[in-house]
Amino acid sequence: MSDQDERLALLTGWLSHELRLPVLRIEPASSDASFRRYFRAVCGERTFIVMDAPPEKEDVRPYLHVTRLLEPLGVHVPHVYEADRDRGLLLLEDLGTTHYLARLLAAGPQHLYEDALEALARIQVRGAEAAQELAPYDREPLLREMALMPEWFLGRHLAIAPTAREERMLQGAFEFLIAEALSQPQVFVHRDFHSRNLMVVGERNPGVLDFQDALRGPVGYDLVSLLKDCYISWPREQVTGWVSAYREQLQREGGPAGADGGQFLRWFDLIGVQRHLKVLGIFARLWYRDGKSGYLRDLPLTLDYVRDTCRRYAELAELSEFLEERIVAELPRANERAAAQAIRP
Questions:
Q1: Domain count of the chain?
Q2: Tens digit of pLDDT for each residue in 157-191?
Q3: In a 3-state reduction of DSSP, which class is residue 198?
Q4: HSE-CB of 10 using CA atoms within 13 angstroms
Q5: Could you report the per-residue pLDDT of 276-295, keeping only the tens digit for each?
Q6: Are 20 and 35 within one domain?
Q7: CATH code assigned at 74
Q8: 315 and 190 housed in the same domain
Q9: Hey, CA dihedral for 206, 212, 216, 220, is it positive or negative?
Q10: Rounded CA separation 172/319 (Å)
Q11: Are residues 168 and 205 both part of a single domain?
Q12: Which of 128, 197, 262, 296 has the smallest count of CB within 10 Å of its CB?
């Protein structure tokens, strides 16, 4: 029996024999970029989501901690009905099957984003005290994340070895982005507040998922995760309109809105470069380390976000030149190579 089959048998026994639920069937619900898996358990007329987090690879305690912080804020996170911390099993509220991404592709974004921005304001304003229970999103994690880009995106995916001058340029850009991130007001940061982690629900929309890695960090981080989403994009004018409206909301609610709209937009843009450099590395690593090729198709949009912002800020002019001269033409070829490997028997 495979490890996954053993985990499924463990999960099934936990539901049926220990929790005494009338399980009719168990079906895959989703997986994510970690070792966690999710199953939908149909139990009579009710359904639940069961998180399977193998304890040697995942720890459910951060998830439970952040759930405890977010629920009192009025954020619709899945309620935890039962938890077996030692075996990595959680019985959760089922928030349905409709992700924001699916609905955004089928209909207009305005109403959905209004709801998501309202939820984000709750997290950032009402969550000010809760944020003090989170670890800081400071220099070490910010730098560690950006270092994934030269290692996995440049080195492994594009097969590009930066010159000594280019390495100095990258390190200089990273230091600039870290300084900019640390200069922002520090708030409760979900760290993956985007369309695949938001569910369309009937009450207190959206349902919010995948928050276990929350930290206390820059106010612009979750906003850019939502509005410069790596899975769907919107015109710059529309995005800056949402940013401006969100800043006004923060002002009304006493949140950290910055001195003016220009400063707030700068915060938004520059923390976006940090995030998207990280994501370039993560998406490449998911293929080369974990065998998950599906994220490679999202690399071009993620790179375009970095390119667009670097063109707008003089401090990132050298990084912009490097991307245009060394990276842009190589990415399609690298993706073609990876696609051929992915389908090879």
A1: 2
A2: 999 999 999 999 999 999 999 999 999 999 999 99
A3: strand
A4: 18
A5: 999 999 999 999 999 999 99
A6: yes
A7: 3.30.200.20
A8: yes
A9: negative
A10: 9
A11: yes
A12: 262
